[in-house]
Amino acid sequence: MALVTIAMGRLSQTFLLLLVMSLIGFIGVHSVGNPVFNIVNIETATAEDIRRATIALGLDQPVWRQYLLFIGNVVTGNFGTSYIYHLPAFGLVMSKLPATLELACIAMLVAAPSGIALGLLAGRRNRTFLDRTILKASVFALSVPSFWLSMMLILFGAILTGWFPSGGRGSTASMLGQEWSFLTWNGLWHLILPALALAIPNIALIARLARSGTIEVEQLDFTRFCRAKGLSPHRILFRHTLPNISVPIVTIIGLQFGGMLAFAVVVESIFAWPGVGKLLIDSIQLLDRPVVMATLTFISVAFVALNALVDLFYAVLDPRVRLSA
Amino acid sequence: MKAEIIRVLRRPPFGQALTLSKVVLAAYVLLALAAPAIAPQNPYDPLQIYGWEASSPPGTVGSGGFIYLLGTDGLGRDIVSSILYGLRISLFVSITSATVAALIGLTAGVSAAYFGKWVDVAIMRLVDLQLSLPTILIALIAIVTLGPGIDRIILALIIAQWATYARVVRGIALSETGKSYMDAAKLMRLPTSRIIFRHLLPNSIASAVTLIPIEIGHAVALEATLSFLGLGVPMDKPSLGSTVANGFQYLLTGQYWISLFPGLALFGLIASINLVGEDVRRRLDPRSRSI
């Protein structure tokens, strides 16, 4: 029970901080320049246009009243109406969420097992050719900018070979009132390249973590004892080493899942995957402010909540960890 | 002792890959510095660009009297020249932002450790929040708030990166504040700013400074990503990232060279900075060796 209290305390502190940051950001935007010029075209707008836009956007009110209005709207999930789609901004974000979620889930389902397998392998064969190859490959995989990786996957996986489609979501099937791509063969086919683009850096990250964990654990007394007892290397690896390196790996999987929501911005806009990330970039380019605000707020809050969850899970998984508020 | 240090310094932890990456990185820096002298074309000068030669494949002989070794982009700009000039912008933006972010982060971290109490809580909670969010997300939020432009993107990268330095330096500064030289400085009634900047800071920065090369690598990747999304540097002065972005629409019609070669250059730059950066850190900061 104490755990829940601590988690709630920490979560509320974080939201307080988000509030302060939004206030700083709010004042920052107003001190940099009149935000109305982000909306109207400076070159063609007349003084009358600017005055009308200022009133329509509520920018004629004092800053503190604008901020209170903004916070009130955020709390109730009311970010206003999209300038482009003429739909409620928050509802629009929610309607794009299933596409992003399934992409991130599939990518993690690929990344976690293969990353752990490579890491265990490299750690077991520490300082061999195989280990060094995996380590070097991971440095390169973490250096590839994700947008270029996506483009090269399109070039080699779609354009030159024609194996996979170069973009789009393919056909979907409906489940729980939402449309999902992974339920149809065609949709799954469309998922492979973008999921790989999200998975490759994570495979490298998880592999490095699993490798250093394995090397550390294999030097400990209990592993030596297991070996002395005559257990097979296989059994030691899966029953003793793996559980002992699982805590940091679970943590990184949780955190990277959130990171995928952020990196989906890049991957989705390249693969024309109609998710939250593509919505964000499209809205930025179309100056659709309500949707931009709704998307960024949603991703930040989701990430903070995910972090708190990972912290909690960490404590459950490893009794040595003591949380403090 | 000295021989031992030299031996350790000469031992390459990553073997040939590291030696190679140092050479590659040095070459990148030289190429960026010498770009106006060695580039066959000035991609910012419309008079040197021939629009009818747009999207020429590699090896085409151009009207300017030189061969387009890597082809031209959709506007007729030579890819080799675009890479060389883009390199300058990418390196300028990332080095500037990583350095300023380090200055701000160091000051914030040392102040948090020295003043303690609510200053510490305020600064470190902000740092914790920032570090728990992906840097790309923070950079995105910052650039959306600030608007486009080279100065804005540098500012956005600083906002995204200062927290890392603050976290590292605060931990070390905290252990330094308890040492007797700090007590001596306080007993001598030195001004607070002098204690912080002349005594505490120099003794706490070693670990954080070794982060700078790695953070420059991150900044290159971040800037390229933002520029790729159309939120970074303006289109008339493209960085490596926006050069790759320019080629994206042509990729789908098979004109691969416009995005392939600038992307390779970018990848090589980030990989070599990362390799050299990790090596610098490993050598100068024993604490990071366990990782």
TrEMBL record, chain A:
InterPro entries: BPD_transp_1_N, MetI-like, MetI-like_sf. The keyword Repeat does not apply. It comes from the Bacteria. One of its GO terms (biological process) is transmembrane transport. CDD domains: TM_PBP2 (cd06261). Pfam families: BPD_transp_1 (PF00528), BPD_transp_1_N (PF19300). It is a multi-pass membrane protein. Keywords: Cell membrane, Membrane, Transmembrane, Transmembrane helix, Transport. Coiled coil: none annotated. Its main location: membrane. One of its GO terms (cellular component) is plasma membrane. The chain crosses the membrane at residues 15-33, 67-87, 99-122, 134-163, 183-205, 245-271, 291-317. It is found in: Cell membrane. Residues 97-314 form the ABC transmembrane type-1 domain. Belongs to the binding-protein-dependent transport system permease family. This is ABC transporter permease. It comes from Phyllobacterium salinisoli. The lineage of its organism: Bacteria, Pseudomonadati, Pseudomonadota, Alphaproteobacteria, Hyphomicrobiales.
TrEMBL record, chain B:
It comes from the Bacteria. It is found in: Cell membrane. One of its GO terms (cellular component) is plasma membrane. It is a multi-pass membrane protein. Keywords: Cell membrane, Membrane, Transmembrane, Transmembrane helix, Transport. GO terms for biological process: transmembrane transport. The chain crosses the membrane at residues 20-39, 91-115, 127-147, 195-214, 256-277. Residues 87-277 form the ABC transmembrane type-1 domain. Pfam families: BPD_transp_1 (PF00528). Belongs to the binding-protein-dependent transport system permease family. This is ABC transporter permease. It comes from Phyllobacterium salinisoli. The lineage of its organism: Bacteria, Pseudomonadati, Pseudomonadota, Alphaproteobacteria, Hyphomicrobiales.
